[in-house]
Structure formats: C-alpha cells, structure tokens
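STRUCTURE REQUEST FORM
Protein name: HTH merR-type domain-containing protein
Source organism: Rhodohalobacter barkolensis
Requested output: structure tokens
Priority: standard
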Amino acid sequence: MKKLYYSIGEVSEITDIEPHVLRYWETIFDDLTPRKNKAGNRTYKEDDITLVLKLKELIQEKKYSTAGAKKIIEGKEDEKSAASPEPLSAEVKKDLQEVKLFLQKLKEKL
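Status: completed
Returned output:
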C-alpha cells in the first residue's frame, strides 16, 4: 500500500538501510531532505525512498564513495566515467608479467 509519508523506521525497513545511515546521508546529499512533522519526526516521500535506493546501489553495491555518489546524483559525472577499474590481484599481476616476458622473448626471436 502506497502512503504519502513514511517514517524513518519504515524507510529503514523498506530499503534495508539503518536509520543512522539515513540520517548521515541527509548531511551529505542535498537532495535527501525529508521534512519533519510537528513532533520533529522525519517524514519521507516516495521520491526520497527512490533516492535512498539509488544511493544504496551506488554506495553499497557498486562501491562508490559518498563523494563519487554525490557527483553522480548531482549530475556532475555519469556512472560510466566515474567507474574506476578494479585493482588487479597479485596473482593476475604475476600472470601478466609472465605473459609480458614470454612476448618479449618471442619478439627477440623474430
């Protein structure tokens, strides 16, 4: 059932993000600004939940920093250009070095 407003507890349950993380993200992301009711409780709208889910994808699943996620959310950078390659493992580096040496020796024989 869709509602007009959701509490921080409901948003936490829907998105599987802890309330303290939601409050922290509010301090970083200008677009995440839930209103507060007369009692001072945060009231999130559907758009806020959509943004939280996007932030969860960027930060927790795609492993962006909060600064990188902020650039993407603000439209200053797209996800493709912001993506940095994964660091190579020591095993892969070793294998690449062996291939390089093999190719160098093969080139010398030509």
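Reviewer notes: The mean pLDDT is 85. The helical segments are 8-15, 19-28, 46-61, 66-73, 79-82, 90-109.
Form closed.
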